[in-house]
Structure formats: C-alpha cells, structure tokens
C-alpha cells in the first residue's frame, strides 16, 4: 500500500516522522484546502494512507470533512514532537460520524479559525477533548477519575463537565414532548433529592423534582420544582402529558383536581399498600425510575444551579443505555448546539 505524507507545515516534520514513513509525497503549501484538492486529483484512483503533521486546526477540520469523500484508506493526525509525538487514527473517528456532523463537530472541538473548543469556552487539544467525553458519558464518571487519567486540574474538569451538561440539556429540550399514547397510563410522583440530616452535621438543602413515566412506552420526564402546590404540578401535567390519559399518583392533595381537568385519575395510598387491591393501580415504575436517576446524580459537591444539568445528564444516560452509543449521540448533539460561525 502506497504511503503518502502530505506535509502541510514543513517546520513540524520531525526526524521521527521521516523514519516511520520513508516513502512520502512532499507537498508544501499554507493552503490546506488546496492540499485536499491535490489529494482528490492525484489519488482519485488509488487508496492511500495520509499522515497530516500540523498544528493548524483548520487542517484538522478539512481533513475530517473530506476524508470520507476522497479515496483515502486511512488518515492520521500527528500531535507533539520528539518523545511526545503520538498518532491519532482520525479516520476511525470520522467514520463513526454521519457526513453532516463531521464539519460542525470538528469545527467546535478543534478551535477552527478563531472559534475555540465549545464555541470559545476553553481549549484543550482534540485528543484530550475526546478522552474527556468518553469518560464523561460513562455511568461511573467522577472528577477524581478525570483528574487522574487526563492529568487535568479540578477547575478544568469542572468547566468541561458544565460544557457537557449544556450539550445534553439542549439535547433533552429538543426531544421534549408530551407522553402517553392511546389507552396508555402515566405514573406521576415527586421526589426530593438531598435530605436534611437529623440535626447532625451540615444541613443539606434538598431539591424537589416532579416526574412521570408511561407504563407502556417507558417514556419519562423530569422537572425540578420549587414547590409542590396544585398550580405548579397541574401546569406541568398539562404541559407534559397528553390530555385525557389515565394518571396514577399517590394521595398528595395537589392531584385531587385531575379528574376535573379531564384526566382519568387513579390513586394508591402508600400508607396502606403499594398496589391498590381494587384498581391494581401502583406507582412502582416511577419509583424505580427515581432510584435509577438518583444513582446518576452526584451525591457530593452538588450545586443547585447545576441541578437541571444533573437531571438532563441522568435522562441522557438512561435513554441511551448502551455506553458505546452514547459517544456518537453526544457528538451529534454537540455539533447541533455549537455549529460553525462563518
């Protein structure tokens, strides 16, 4: 297989690169777009391997965007110099993204032109960016792991976690819709995240969350609320649940108006039983969902201003349960939110 090195910045070509790839076609230009046209015209009939050595992120973006359209077998990006030189298989990342996502995503994460990572909100190198996201989408992600594995300081990890939460918040909002189909039943409940200790130690402020889940489709929603009064909950029920559906709840008085609002309302008295002996109504499904959500929300170091982000992250990870798919879904969401600015 013919190995071709497209040199986009001659000064970065190290002796290590020359030793690894002794046979290469040397093209020297400061215009990466012309390089890509050269690749298309010169190698249209022969699959080649391309090694790009450049600190210019414009080159990175263009290589990714055109790599699938050109007849290139593999494309690698070299980062660093000397003993720190490493090779990143860019073609593997490119192939995992659909064509319309490649340019926006790499524009966002590489700092193309004057736009830095996450639309100007910090700038790590592309390899560290991807490694962080791979860690962040895991259920077991925590700051200590990111600090240890990526050698980042706590402030950087905190900032990048916030940026990732922004992506999933936007993703959740775009998917937001009413739940409950034909003859479907929706369970609703409220739960408090964080409890006051029994007059021992630091007082922990809690956050009430209102949620609902469809028994048949398993679609669900989570909304943080300041109060659990009738007006607040009824407004969310009308906003999140299709009208006229069957709703099961506990005996909280704020729900007493549901029948008057056109819903079929069933209740279960948890002080007596978990399943109503007459109607067989229960809220076990939503109770299990609370357990899953709370396992994903940070138990320590939690900030109330980030709570919407915590819930969105939980929703994202519970909806996209396969970790191998989360990276792909997250990158598409990031490309949608932080689109290139011309």
Task: Describe, in plain words, how this protein is organized in 3D.
By secondary structure, the chain is of the alpha/beta class. Among the domains are: 1-95; 185-296, 2-Layer Sandwich (Nucleotidyltransferase, domain 5), CATH 3.30.420. Helices cover 42% and strands 15% of the residues. The protein is built from 13 helices and 9 strands. It has a 5-stranded mixed beta sheet with strand order 7-6-5-8-9, sandwiched between helices. A 4-stranded mixed beta sheet has the order 1-2-3-4. α9 (154-175) packs across α12 (307-319). The longest helix is centred in the middle third of the chain and has 22 residues, at 154-175. It is elongated, with a radius of gyration of 26 Å. The two termini are 38 Å apart.
Task: Please give the structural blueprint.
Elements: E1 3-6, H1 15-20, H2 32-42, E2 48-53, H3 57-67, E3 72-79, E4 86-89, H4 90-95, H5 99-110, H6 117-120, H7 126-136, H8 143-150, H9 154-175, E5 185-193, E6 207-214, E7 220-225, H10 230-240, E8 246-249, E9 264-267, H11 284-296, H12 307-319, H13 323-337
Parallel strand pairs: 1-2, 2-3, 5-8, 8-9
Antiparallel strand pairs: 3-4, 5-6, 6-7
Helix pairs in contact: 3-5, 5-13, 9-12, 9-13, 11-12
Largest sheet: 5 strands, mixed
- In the CATH hierarchy, what is the superfamily of the domain at 185-296? Ribonuclease H-like superfamily/Ribonuclease H
On the 0 to 100 scale, the average pLDDT is 75
Strand order, largest beta sheet: 7-6-5-8-9
Counted by DSSP, the helix tally is 13
Output the CATH topology of the domain at 185-296: Nucleotidyltransferase, domain 5
Number of strands: 9
Instruction: Name the helix and strand elements from N-terminus to C-terminus, one letter apiece.
Output: EHHEHEEHHHHHHEEEHEEHHH
Our measurement of the CA-to-CA distance between the termini, rounded to an integer number of angstroms, reads 38 Å
Q: Tell me the overall shape.
A: elongated
Q: Give the CATH class of the domain at 185-296.
A: Alpha Beta
- Percent strand: 15-25%
CATH-scheme architecture of the domain at 185-296:
2-Layer Sandwich
Proportion of helical residues? 40-55%
Query: What does the oligomeric state look like here?
Result: single chain
Low-confidence region ranges: 1-45, 110-117
Structural class: alpha/beta
């Amino acid at each position: 297989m013919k190995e071709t090195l497209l040199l986009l910045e001659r000064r970065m070509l190290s002796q290590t690169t020359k030793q690894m790839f002794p046979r290469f076609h040397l093209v020297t230009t400061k215009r990466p777009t012309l390089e890509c046209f050269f690749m298309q015209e010169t190698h249209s009939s022969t699959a080649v391997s391309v090694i790009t050595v450049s600190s210019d992120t414009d080159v990175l973006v263009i290589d990714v965007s055109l790599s699938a359209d050109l007849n290139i077998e593999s494309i690698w990006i070299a980062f660093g110099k000397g003993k720190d030189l490493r090779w990143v298989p860019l073609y593997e990342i490119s192939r995992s993204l659909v064509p319309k996502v490649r340019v926006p995503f790499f524009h966002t994460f590489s700092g193309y032109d004057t736009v830095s990572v996450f639309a100007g909100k910090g700038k790590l190198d592309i390899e560290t960016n991807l490694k962080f996201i791979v860690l962040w989408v895991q259920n077991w992600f925590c700051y200590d792991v990111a600090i240890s594995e990526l050698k980042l300081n706590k402030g950087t990890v905190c900032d990048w976690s916030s940026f990732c939460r922004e992506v999933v918040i936007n993703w959740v909002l775009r998917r937001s819709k009413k739940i409950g189909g034909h003859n479907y039943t929706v369970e609703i409940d409220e739960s408090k995240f964080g409890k006051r200790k029994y007059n021992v130690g630091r007082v922990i402020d809690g956050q009430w969350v209102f949620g609902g889940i469809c028994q048949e489709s398993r679609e669900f929603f989570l909304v943080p609320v300041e109060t659990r009064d009738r007006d607040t909950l009824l407004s969310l029920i009308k906003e999140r649940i299709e009208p006229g559906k069957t709703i099961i709840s506990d005996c909280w008085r704020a729900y007493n108006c549901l029948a008057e609002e056109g819903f079929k309302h069933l209740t279960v008295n948890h002080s007596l039983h978990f399943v109503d002996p007459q109607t067989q109504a229960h809220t076990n499904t939503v109770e299990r969902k609370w357990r899953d959500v709370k396992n994903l929300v940070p138990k320590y170091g939690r900030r109330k201003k980030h709570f919407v982000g915590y819930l969105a992250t939980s929703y994202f990870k519970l909806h996209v349960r396969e970790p191998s798919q989360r990276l792909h879904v997250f990158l598409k969401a990031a490309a949608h939110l932080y689109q290139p600015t011309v």
